[in-house]
Design brief:
130 residues; mainly alpha; 83% helix; 0% strand; elongated
Length: 130
């Protein structure tokens, strides 16, 4: 009976281990390491560009003026820029780029631009508080 158990256990071990080895040899990667590295680097570059757009936005004299009149801190907003990520970062940067472009093009600051500035500053400060 003991001999039968040893044979059975040995057969089970061989059976369970054999497919694992075959599976490991057949496994292929969907993406290679260089493509993965490139994708990560591209994402980091986009995030850095988005943060730079927000910092440029915050340094604009018109934005500083609106923030001062609204009682919002540009320094706290600058700190919050580095904590933004994902969709929040992309959306805020997109809005900041639009305002930067309007202000750089000599467009006058209208209520819509002022509203966007205030909303962005509030979002950045809320993120800084969290």
């Amino acid at each position: 009976m003991q001999m039968f158990r040893r044979i059975l256990v040995s057969a089970l071990v061989v059976t369970l281990c054999a497919p694992a080895g075959a599976w490991a040899q057949q496994q292929t990667h969907v993406i290679n390491q260089s493509a993965l590295d490139q994708a990560v680097q591209q994402r980091v570059s986009h995030d850095q560009a988005d943060r730079e757009a927000l910092r440029t936005f915050l340094q604009n004299p018109a934005v500083k003026n609106v923030a001062a009149k609204s009682g919002l801190s540009i320094d706290r907003a600058n700190v919050a820029v580095s904590t933004l990520q994902g969709d929040e970062l992309r959306q805020a940067a997109s809005q900041a780029r639009a305002v930067n472009q309007d202000l750089a093009g000599g467009a006058t600051v209208v209520i819509t631009t002022t509203t966007i500035i205030i909303i962005l500053l509030v979002i950045l400060i809320i993120v800084a508080i969290d």
